Amino acid sequence: MMGIIHKRHLFLSGAAAILLYNQCMSEQWSRLKLFIQKTFIKLNITMDDLISCLATSVTVSSTPNDTAAPHPRFALYKPKYAVPPQEERRNRFLEAQKKKRYDYVLHARKLAEGSWSVHSEEEEKTEEEMEWVGEPRKFSRSYRNQLMLSEWLVEVPSDLSEEWLLVLCPEGKRNLVIASRGHTRAFTKSGYHINTFPSELPGGNRKQRKHAVDYTLLDCVFNEKEKTFFILDIMCWRSNPVFDSETTFRFWWLHTKISEIPEVQQCSKLNPYKFVPLPSYSCDHEVIQNTLWSNLPFSCKLDGLLFYHKRTLYTAGLTPLVGWLKPYMLPEMLQIPVPETLTSDKPPTYVCMEQQLPKAFKKHRDKKDIEQQEKVEETISIQTEEMVT
After folding, report:
1. Which of 128, 208, 236, 372 is deepest in the core (most CB within 10 A)?
2. Is the CB of residue 316 less than 8 Å from the CB of residue 137?
3. How many CA atoms lie within 13 A of 93 on its CB side?
């Protein structure tokens, strides 16, 4: 009996100690918050400023050149793993495309019929849980990770003017649009269903009885103010998938098919949102400059520039075969002047990184030279061993 009372006494004493500790920690935290608030007032900064600063300084993404993180030239911290040069990864993606086989017809039908849920048990790992493997990823078994996403254009391709196409991207939210079974649905790139409405797209409204079995899949940017879905790319039209077609064909197919149904570009009762295909341009320096200094193909604000490799297929997830730049980055990356009207979102602290951090850039160049030399020595060593054997 005395043992039980003793244990209970010890338990109560421990609980009291924990409560006292929590109270002390709470008081210390209150003092710390008060100190931080006073410091912010003295320095004339807000919590939003601090969060913005941290957001643009630190990235925890394991995906190379992810556009959700700052451009690598702005990042203050190096990734924790080695990433092959962007040019090398582009070549690997192009080679992997040739070997890859996938049933795109079945995949498109599954998406159109809604056979896969957002919370599918067979859903793949997120980008944060996966390391880069050097080839296009498989389509997930849900509406999540279905869009082809760009990387920051870190290394300018040597064949930019010959093998790449430019698309000007307006401000808005990236959406996967699926028209099937008499209604049209919009999903975020994370796979969340955000809207259902009728449209004049094939399979998009209930009055299309003649084409009730048709379905359409589009990659769009939705601008709420303009009530417009700006179409970046096409994956399927009238139940005909074009995932495995090259960029040049997909862009031509998109404009051809949209022109056959002019009603989709006008607002109406059966089409409350406009669907407008975005034009593509040659990546010749002069063409890019003339395009930016001319009237934009849309009335809303320019968000950035997408660079598509002409031979890339439509693959899910991030790919080095689609590059992304903000307008104010062009003078540094491509030596192309940009009108001041297109650089309104330029950070006030922006400085050319090579000018700001010359030692860091010199170190980076020296490191690449060493890596190249090591590759040459390794090749010579392998060839020597083969000759000896």
Report:
1. 236
2. yes
3. 25
